[in-house]
Amino acid sequence: MKLRKASAAAATALVLALTATACGGDDNDSSDTGSGSGGGDTIKVGIKYDQPGLGLKEPDGSFSGFDVDVATYVAKELGYEPDQIEFVETKSADRENALARGDVKFIAATYSINDERKQKVDFAGPYLLAHQDLLVKSDSDITEATDLNGNKLCSVTGSTSAQNVKDEIAPKAQLKQYGGYSECIAGLQSGAVDAVTTDDSILAGFAAQEQYKGQFKLAGLKLSNENYGIGVKKGDTATVDKINTALEKMVSDGAWDTAVKENFGPANYKNEPAPKIGNIVQ
């Protein structure tokens, strides 16, 4: 009888222990994409890996750029320290799918807000207003888009930036399309092309790199408005609200201005003031 009582007690203790372990596991369970309220082990954030000044994976495995600084600040406000952030490369064509699949909690990757994208994802921000511009050599006499007539204009394959300039402004421009902006920059440096076009923030990021210091300049044109937002899975309004609050704090405490100067300053990038957070426009 005593043996039976002891066995029953042991069984009860085992059940209680397993139950406690299961509950404890729920409380401390790590979330691959983050809970949106902090407290998890890690949070996955989508960025670009190949855009200097914005989102760049360095040779030592670290990350740098304005988007990285914004994402790090936002993640901290959500409850995650820098060593709890896992940066995930999200190429432009896969950003909506990455959010829909839950691969990342949010994306900060030169993600321009437009009506088509707003059908698929929700946006916090905007956190930067960029413009399509031209990058030319520092001694270039190209000051207007019309000056591209007869000159070689570079952009990446599949981009509409250069085609828009040719169609609407400089029909005699000679388009050169390369696989990436780094190739366009190399072409500009060698003289193979006369100008590179895309968002001014991206151009400034390249121009600010030490190896290009003083070689290039922005034309200072405003050929389009590109409001960068932070992409969030469609319907996750709670996370959108929290990110907007974090962005407002980043602007008010001066961290936004500091990030702009540190990442774009060497290119003399004349950035727009911080946009009104929560004012989602195309």
TrEMBL record:
The keyword Transport applies. Keywords: Signal, Transport. This is Glutamate ABC transporter substrate-binding protein. CDD domains: PBP2_GluB. SMART domains: PBPb (SM00062). Residues 42-267 form the Solute-binding protein family 3/N-terminal domain. Belongs to the bacterial solute-binding protein 3 family. Gene3D superfamilies: Periplasmic binding protein-like II (3.40.190.10). Residues 1-22 form the signal peptide. The keyword Signal applies. It holds the Pfam family SBP_bac_3.
